[in-house]
Design goal:
About 15% of the residues lie in helices and about 35% in strands. The chain is of the alpha+beta class and about 230 residues long. The strands form two sheets. Strands 1, 4, 5, 6, 7, 8, 9, 10, 11 and 12 form a ten-stranded antiparallel β-sheet that branches. Strands 2-3 form a two-stranded antiparallel ribbon. The longest helix is centred in the first third of the chain and has 15 residues. The protein is globular. The N and C termini lie close together (about 10 Å).
Length: about 230
């Protein structure tokens, strides 16, 4: 059983990761690097994260049967409709077994693609609800934009929780995302990497990681070690 203090901490962390993202300041919504017909291949490079029972937290593009991606497996992220003026767009995730359909938002830092207004993100990314109450380091490089968020505590038990997100600056598409959890000296990690690169593949016609972060935040932090 979790003690009262730990339950309180978990509640705060859960709320933090489930908040809807919101940003201050003016975003240049003309800075769009994706278009209908673009697709990128992503690979689940590593996954050792377990839940409160010690079972592996499976990475899935959909709750439907066949939606699970195993370590070493890949899935395609395809833009299926043009981006709207607000930054919304339709996409599919396809792992070769099923195709999941979703709607993305370029104004959500941490999602599969964002607006390419990097001057804005230099300030807005670290102020987002995604990184609430954490220390964030922003690296605005020539070709890549990286944000690293860290939570560390040793008040009740030793814990370190790190989220690293990297985008290609040309297109605003995710290059990689990793989540690393250390609890009581046990480290677990999930890493997703873009296999295509900054420039998209193109396909004719119909064809990740706020929800992913929300999905993983509870089992990763809530786990009780034996």
């Amino acid at each position: 059983m979790l003690n009262g203090n730990r339950r309180y901490l978990l509640s705060i962390l859960t709320i933090m990761f489930l908040f809807s993202l919101s940003f201050a300041g003016a975003q240049d919504t003309t800075e769009v690097g994706i278009e209908k017909g673009n697709y990128w291949e992503f690979k689940l490079v590593e996954n050792t994260i377990t839940d409160a029972n010690g079972d592996l937290v499976e990475f899935a593009i959909s709750a439907s049967e066949g939606g699970i991606v195993e370590v070493g497996g890949t899935f395609d992220f395809e833009i299926t409709e043009e981006v709207t003026e607000s930054g919304a767009y339709d996409y599919t995730l396809d792992n070769g077994e099923i195709t999941a359909v979703g709607t993305g938002d370029l104004d959500e830092f941490g999602s599969e693609a964002v607006f390419t207004d990097w001057e804005y993100w230099t300030t807005a990314a670290e102020d987002s609800a995604l990184f609430l109450l954490t220390e964030v380091t922003i690296t605005d490089g020539t070709d890549e934009f990286k944000a690293v968020s860290v939570i560390e505590s040793d008040l009740i038990f030793i814990i370190s929780y790190t989220v690293e997100i990297v985008y290609y600056k040309d297109t605003g598409v995710l290059k990689s995302m990793s989540i690393t959890s250390t609890i009581d000296s046990v480290t677990e990690e999930m890493t997703i990497e873009n296999q295509t690169g900054a420039v998209a593949e193109e396909v004719p016609g119909f064809g990740f990681i706020m929800s992913l972060l929300a999905l993983l935040a509870v089992p990763v932090i809530a786990k009780k070690r034996k």
